[in-house]
Design a protein that fits this description.
The chain is α/β, with parallel strands linked by helices. 41% of the residues lie in helices and 18% in strands. An 8-stranded mixed β-sheet has the order 4-3-2-5-1-6-7-8, with helices on both faces. α8 links the parallel β7 and β8. α3 crosses α11.
Length: 445
């Protein structure tokens, strides 16, 4: 099977990442259907040696990347599965930082195709989904390549997420906030219950700093499943030493061990919290016999590559790409820009999916953005049309302009910006990824 044909086949399945009109129920998100698919391709989910399962609202991708990079530096063969992707679906599958090749992905799709076709429309279990297929492909690749450790990021929620068919050995819960409220629930507590659904019996749980009500829900599930509960804010602390557009330099103490002068090539206080969570997870693994030296932790953090997380892609004017897509993440982005950058005028290139708290995100930029250009990704019907987005932001933000496509919106921002200004492209994975892809293609020609 050719790569293009493989992608066309995968894209022919229902994709809830690009649709909003669905309910979060056990027909659309069916773990028995996922198990049946895996069983039909040889049960790759039973071949793992160690699984780290990660859920949360904020920072789960960054934390997963940090953990996998540290473990790779320690000499382990580490499979990393994340979503969504920015430029190519191959980003979802990595072993020791290297993406799956086009040929490898095509071969895997060819192996899965007969079972997927048979299950495409199941009256008994509901329609097979895009995300379930991708998750199966990830498990199949990691198993066939003999990965020692699998680091799996949940896609949506946790309890009914396709990744939750696996028996995890370590669970990590990153900060939980209000997101996907139409699907997961409109309170922190309801969302926390869905995220905590990945906690399994006897598997240690590393929990990032949370609001007290959320922390209690997670710790109660741990008690019920006899799972050790490790609260990051109780076992770690950090001191930020310096910051530059290249990243953060800080010292940390985690579970009684001191780490001086750590460097993380990601920006923001929230990324330091993610790093503390990652180090705590690694320390738990070390306590279980894994050979992970302080040097591997240090070099692993320094080698982290995770694009579009307050990523500076241009100077004069400064251009930042960031995939923040809820008020909490936008608040962290705004705070980092205020603390780490100097500029005259801020121009916001903003897009959002229709299930997001647009007004909440807008209020975070109120009095901060000098100009906002509302836009959308070209091929994603889940995103709000620019004219509607402009209407919803007017009255919250000053000087809002609607521009149909993200490429044109960015060109408009560049035409408005002086050399000492800052352009921030944010609000969703989809239009940020489309712009990044456009930039990469231009650099390649």
């Amino acid at each position: 099977m050719e790569y293009r044909s493989a992608l066309e086949f995968l894209n022919s399945f229902i994709n809830y990442e690009r649709r909003v009109e669905h309910r979060y129920d056990e027909r659309r998100f069916n773990l028995d259907r996922m198990r049946r698919l895996l069983d039909s391709i040889g049960s790759p989910h039973l071949a793992h040696k160690k699984v780290i399962h990660i859920a949360g609202t904020k920072g789960k991708g960054s934390t997963a990347c940090m953990i996998s990079t540290i473990l790779a530096e320690a000499g382990y063969k580490v499979g990393l599965y994340t979503s969504p992707h920015l430029v190519t679906p191959r980003e979802r599958f990595r072993i020791n930082g290297k993406m799956i090749s086009q040929d490898e992905l095509s071969q895997l799709v060819e192996r899965v195709q007969p079972a997927a076709e048979e299950m495409r429309h199941s009256d008994e279990m509901g329609d097979l989904t895009f995300f379930e297929l991708y998750t199966a492909l990830g498990f199949l690749w990691f198993a066939s390549e003999g990965a020692d450790i699998w680091v799996l990021e949940t896609g949506l929620g946790g309890r009914l997420d396709a990744t939750n068919v696996i028996d995890s050995d370590l669970v990590v819960i990153t900060p939980i906030g209000l997101d996907h409220i139409q699907i997961l629930g409109d309170t922190l507590e309801a969302i926390a219950r869905e995220k905590a659904g990945i906690i399994k019996s006897d598997a240690p749980v590393v929990c990032a700093p949370q609001k007290e009500s959320v922390k209690e829900i997670i710790s109660e599930r741990c008690r019920r499943f006899n799972s050790p509960f490790i609260s990051v804010d109780e076992v770690s602390r950090s001191e930020r030493e310096a910051s530059s557009p290249a990243g953060e330099r800080f010292s940390a103490e985690v579970m009684g061990l001191r780490y001086e002068d750590l460097f993380l090539p990601l920006l923001g206080e929230h990324q330091i919290i993610n790093a503390l969570t990652a180090i705590t997870a690694v320390e738990v693994m070390r306590g279980e016999g894994f050979q992970i030296s302080p040097k591997a932790i240090r070099s692993g953090l320094a080698r982290v590559k995770w694009p579009c997380r307050i990523q500076v892609v241009r100077e004069r004017p400064i251009v930042i790409l960031d995939v923040a897509h809820n008020p909490d993440s936008i608040r962290a982005l705004r705070r980092t820009i205020q603390e780490r950058f100097r500029y005259e005028k801020l121009i916001l290139v903003f897009g959002a999916s229709s299930d997001k708290d647009v007004e909440g995100m807008g209020y975070e930029f109120a009095g901060f953005a000098d100009m906002t250009i509302a836009t959308r990704a070209s091929d994603n019907t889940r995103m709000i049309p620019p004219a509607e987005l402009k209407s919803r932001l007017e009255g919250i933000l000053d000087h809002v302009l609607a521009v149909g496509a993200v490429r044109e919106a960015f060109s408009e921002a560049l035409s408005m910006a002086g050399p000492d200004d800052l352009i921030c492209v944010t609000g969703s994975f989809y239009h940020v990824g489309e712009l990044l892809k456009d930039m990469i293609c231009k650099n390649m020609t």
